[in-house]
Every structure is written in C-alpha cells, then in structure tokens.
C-alpha cells in the first residue's frame, strides 16, 4: 500500500464506450477462420493501453532492470515468430508474489515476480511466455469480451474504477479478475499449443514447459492449499503436462539433430537475490494483524477474513465474500473534511457521524448507506450498500478504513469492521519495524545429497522444506549431484 488510486466510474465508462462498434466477423489470425467480433485490432490495442495503467497501479513494477530486459528480449523474439508480429507488444515484470502470468488485449503481457521465482530454467519461462503471447495472437480475450454486452463490460469497469461503492461483496481485485476474463478449456489448450510452437521456434526445449505444470499441480494442492491464479481457471495441470510433452516431442522430431536449449544455470543466476514472498516494507500480514513498517501503522484483521495488499490500498474480504473492507489514503490532512468529501462523492445517506479518537489519533467516523446506480442492462436497481468509514489522522496522512456490505447483511459484519477500525495504531514494535524481506539465494551444492538434506544445511525450517522443494521443482527425496545449483533463501527469519 503506497499511494492513493482514484478514478470514478463515469470517467472509465466514457473511455470504454468508443471502443465498441457494431458486431462483425473477423478472421482469427491463428486459425484463419471467421469469428464473431465487435472489437477491431485498433480498438483492441486501445483497450490494452487503457488497462495497462490499472494493472501497474494495482501491482506495481518490480525493479530489476536486467530481468525486465530479459523478459522483453524473449517476449519480442517470440512475438516476432507469432501470427501478429506487428502488434505494439509490451512485456512487464510486476511486483506481486502470486504465481501468475496473464495478458490483456493488444499485446500487453505481465509476469509476476512470484512466477519468475518458480521457474527453474529458461525453457520453462519461455513456454509460459509463449502461452500468454498465444492468448493475444489468438484473440482469446477479445473473443470473450465480444460475448459480453456493453452494459456488462461497463459494470466491470465500474467495479475497477470506483472501489468504494462496488457491487455487493466485490473487492477491487475481484473486479480485476472479472476484467481478465476466464478463458475456456479450448482456449487454454490452444495457448499451450502456441506456447510449444513459439518457444520451440526460438530454440527452447518445450518439454521443460510440461515440467512446470508439475510445479503448478503441487502448488494448487500444497501445504498452504494455495491455488495460483495461473492454474485456477486452467485445465488440470497434469493433463496439460501430458499433452504438452506429446506436442513438444512432435516439434523436436520435426527438427532432427537440433540441440534445444534448457538454460537452467543461466536462469537461476538471473534470479539470484530476487525478492521472494511479500515485501515487508510494503506491509505484511502476521498472526492476525497487518503491519506497515514504512508508514509505521498497524491494525487487526478479523478472523478468517482474506487480506489483499496492493500498492494503492489494503483490502479485506469476509469469509463468505459478502462484506469487504478497504484501507487507503484519503485526500487532505483533516479527518472531518475527508469524511465530508467521501459522503458527497459517494452520495452517502448519513445515519451517524462524529469526531472521535482512535488510540489517541484524531478521527472522524461516518455510518450510512449508499444507493447503487442501476447499470445499463439491469432491470432493477441494486440493493443499497451500508458503510462504516473512519478517517484517521496520523503521520501527516489521512487513513480511510471503510467497511461495506449489503444493507440487509451489514449488522452481521459491523463488529468485525469496528474491530479493525478501532485497532488502527502507531507501530512501535522494533521487531515488526525492522523485518527484512526474504530473497532467493542460489547455492552450489557441495556434495551429492537430497534436496531435503541441502535445504536443512541451509537452515531452512522444517515446516518450509516442502515449500522450497516446490520452488526448486524437485521432490524432497530427489538427489542432487555435487556442483548442481539450487534455490535457498536469505533474509527474513532465515539465518
């Protein structure tokens, strides 16, 4: 959470309307077949140019010029081999720990540092990069968007642009997941095929791409029971692994005698020192609380609520996803003035409002309801949203913490909302303030041993050995030869 993000729904709707024209048939660049489309290539590019700042604002750019340059180099090399080499391709390394890669229309492709950490060679990376390029070249996102009505797309834009009063239970990040519309299994399979084709065309061994699906399979059912976004809407990873192996074998057989690159050591050395997991300087969650060392504040998280920490704001979603809280910076330096701007800007019908103190900090709290405007295509107006928002003055900033739920459900969540608001306080605990980030450390194996033995030698805690074995793409009992490189960690709680 680093900076405020504020864009009203009406502004984005104004930008979206010119992008859509009368339905027509277009030729798919990959298949050569006619397909229904209401979006021309020019409009597709404009869409990507408008989505891109939203992605950057929400995720941030990971500052690693050499790794970014590698992503751009390989992306452009593969895009040149694709059916749409003349798109204005853009490749970005974003500052997010989730294992994810995605694309938006017009040639914009994003890789998180989380997925870069989990690749174990250049060929794995190239296969997934080709997969995402394939989504763009085959116009999968455009096909999905063409099936939506203007009203539905405008509603999605509204959820992204005006997170204060969004659809019931939808956080901004959930809205972005709707923006990056889920592809069907056929589209995913086609992109896997294109990933094999493009990565093989630039000289990589696509069988390594298949191996990465084993990593995704373990992540989706690992000790933390996390389902990475890259695999959550995709076909079964092990089924994809089998099919990619078959396609890769066919591609390699068509070029007998050619040596295809894997690039294990070169890739591992590229990510040596890369940030791993959450960056504590940007805020982190621990034992039911959120701490922000840089801005020196803390607050409690209700039990079982899911926290999403983005550069522009922190969000918490109730277990049943029917209530959401957001904490972000408000404008100005006066809590009452910030509250009044919030009331007016969101058309709040106020039930209560008053100045107060929260842990010795000046604050102003508002309780009321906001009537959602009916969107085009909706027959009835959406139910009113109840809100409780506090504006807290601290360190020269105004922090807004707002909880929202449908008016009929609000009382069920009000205690949790007030629990978080009333816990906002100055962070003084030096152990929290001085938390260091974890980073990937590339180590040369000093003797023939299992990855488990090597990790124990690196003082990796027992409860994290499985996590690190997945990070290395190996089973714990798998043997490593002397001189082999592998991933360990430094910083954080690793000594």
TrEMBL record:
The keyword Flavoprotein does not apply. GO terms for biological process: proteolysis. Pfam families: Peptidase_M48. Its cofactor is Zn(2+). InterPro entries: Mito/Outer_Membr_Metalloprot (IPR051156), Peptidase_M48 (IPR001915). Keywords: Hydrolase, Metal-binding, Metalloprotease, Protease, Signal, Zinc. GO terms for molecular function: peptidase activity. Residues 1-26 form the signal peptide. Residues 67-246 form the Peptidase M48 domain. PANTHER family: M48 FAMILY METALLOPEPTIDASE, METALLOENDOPEPTIDASE OMA1. This is Zn-dependent protease. It comes from Neolewinella antarctica. The lineage of its organism: Bacteria, Pseudomonadati, Bacteroidota, Saprospiria, Saprospirales.
């Amino acid at each position: 959470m680093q900076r405020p993000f504020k864009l009203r729904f009406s502004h984005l709707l104004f930008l979206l309307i010119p992008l859509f024209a009368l339905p027509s048939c277009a030729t798919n660049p990959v298949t050569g077949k006619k397909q229904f489309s209401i979006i021309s290539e020019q409009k597709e590019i404009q869409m990507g140019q408008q989505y891109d700042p939203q992605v950057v604002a929400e995720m941030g750019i990971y500052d690693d010029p050499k790794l970014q340059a590698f992503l751009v180099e390989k992306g452009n090399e593969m895009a040149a081999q694709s059916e749409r080499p003349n798109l204005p391709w853009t490749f970005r390394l974003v500052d997010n720990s989730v294992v994810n890669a995605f694309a938006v229309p017009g040639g914009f492709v994003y890789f998180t540092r989380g997925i870069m950490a989990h690749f174990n060679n250049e060929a794995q990376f190239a296969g997934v990069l080709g997969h995402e390029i394939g989504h763009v070249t085959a116009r999968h996102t455009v096909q999905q968007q063409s099936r939506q009505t203007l009203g539905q797309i405008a509603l999605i834009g509204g959820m992204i642009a005006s997170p204060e009063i969004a659809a019931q239970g939808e956080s901004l990040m959930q809205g972005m997941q709707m923006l990056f519309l889920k592809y069907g299994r056929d589209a995913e399979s086609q992109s896997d095929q294109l990933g094999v084709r493009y990565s093989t065309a630039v000289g990589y061994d696509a069988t390594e791409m298949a191996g990465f699906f084993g990593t995704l399979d373990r992540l989706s059912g690992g000790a933390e029971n996390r389902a990475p976004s890259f695999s959550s809407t995709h076909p079964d990873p092990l089924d994809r692994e089998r099919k990619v192996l078959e396609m890769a074998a066919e591609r390699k057989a068509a070029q007998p005698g050619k040596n295809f690159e894997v690039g294990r050591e070169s890739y591992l050395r590229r990510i040596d020192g890369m940030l791993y997991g959450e960056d504590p300087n940007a805020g982190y969650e621990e034992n039911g609380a959120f701490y922000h060392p840089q801005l020196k504040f803390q607050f409690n998280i209700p039990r079982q609520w899911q926290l999403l920490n983005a550069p522009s704001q922190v969000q918490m979603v109730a277990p049943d996803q029917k209530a959401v809280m957001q904490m972000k910076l408000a404008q100005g330096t006066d809590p009452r003035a910030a509250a009044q701007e919030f009331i007016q800007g969101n058309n709040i019908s106020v039930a209560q409002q008053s100045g107060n103190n929260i842990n010795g900090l000046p604050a102003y709290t508002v309780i009321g309801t906001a009537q959602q405007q009916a969107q085009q295509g909706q027959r009835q107006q959406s139910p009113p949203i109840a809100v409780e928002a506090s504006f807290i003055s601290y360190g020269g900033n105004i922090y807004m913490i707002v909880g929202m739920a449908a008016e009929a459900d609000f009382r069920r969540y009000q205690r949790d909302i007030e629990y978080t608001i009333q816990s906002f306080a100055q962070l003084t605990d030096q152990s929290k303030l001085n938390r260091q980030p974890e980073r990937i450390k590339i180590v040369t194996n000093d003797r023939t041993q299992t990855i488990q033995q090597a990790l124990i030698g690196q003082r990796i805690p027992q409860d994290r050995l499985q996590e690190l074995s997945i990070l290395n793409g190996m089973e714990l009992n798998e043997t490593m030869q002397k001189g082999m490189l592998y991933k360990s960690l430094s910083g954080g709680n690793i000594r």
